[in-house]
Amino acid sequence: MQIVVGACGWQHDQWQGQFYPDDIPFDWRLAYYANEFDTLLLPFEMWSKYKLEEIESWLEDVPAGFDLFFEVNWDFCNENVKKMLSHEMFAYRKVEFSSRLSVQDLEKCYVQQGAIVSIDSNKKGIVLLRCSSKNAIKSDEISRLIEKAKDDYPKCDSVYLFFDQALLDMTVLNNAKIIVDLLSSD
């Protein structure tokens, strides 16, 4: 099983100077992020305000093999967004989050399981988990979260673990990436 770590969104001001170099142009942030991580989840409230052409340009900024997912919230989809979602670019990238998972000793951390709305033969056997919290989580908590994912989804090809809100501190993302690498080498 492969575990892939990523963030929810890439346009975070707190990353300037912490992750993004101070002098990097705003338009280069996605490409810079995609050089360090292999996946990204775009929250509905972020991507749904853009035009299709701009979203298409994002796909041009990331390398082949980079997994970009779009959260879908059907309750808030207007006609323009529904029309955009019918575009082939979204065919295997739409994700709905539903059930909340319980992770022992992580009661301050909210974890949701997502499912890809449209699936193709290349994307079967994947699970998406979105981890949110008001506080950054520690390395041992990240380890428990990753171990739970491995235990709960042993037959999956890939588990994508996305960090949101306060967890967007680059320390959390980098620690998660390191822990996944260490656990994969066992």
Question: Could you explain how this protein is built, in words?
Answer:
This protein has 186 residues and is α/β, with parallel strands linked by helices. It has one domain (2-184): Protein of unknown function UPF0759 (TIM Barrel, Alpha-Beta Barrel). The chain has helices at residues 29-36, 44-47, 52-61, 79-85, 139-152, 170-184; strands at residues 2-8, 39-42, 67-71, 94-101, 109-116, 126-133, 158-163. A 7-stranded mixed barrel has the order 1-2-3-4-5-6-7. A hairpin with a 7-residue loop joins strand 4 and strand 5. Helix 5 packs across helix 6. The two termini are 12 Å apart. The mean pLDDT is 83.
In CATH terms, what is the architecture? Alpha-Beta Barrel
Biggest beta sheet summary: 7 strands, mixed, barrel
Gap from first CA to last CA: 12 Å
Biggest sheet strand line-up: 1-2-3-4-5-6-7
CATH class: Alpha Beta
Q: Give me the strand/helix succession.
A: EHEHHEHEEEHEH
CATH homologous superfamily name? Protein of unknown function UPF0759
Q: Which range does the strand content fall in? A: 15-25%
Number of domains: 1
* Helix/sheet category: alpha/beta
Number of distinct helices: 6
Radius of gyration: 16 Å
Number of strands: 7
Enter the CATH topology name: TIM Barrel
* Uncertain spans: none
Chain-averaged pLDDT: 83
Q: Give the overall form.
A: globular
Percent helix range: 25-40%
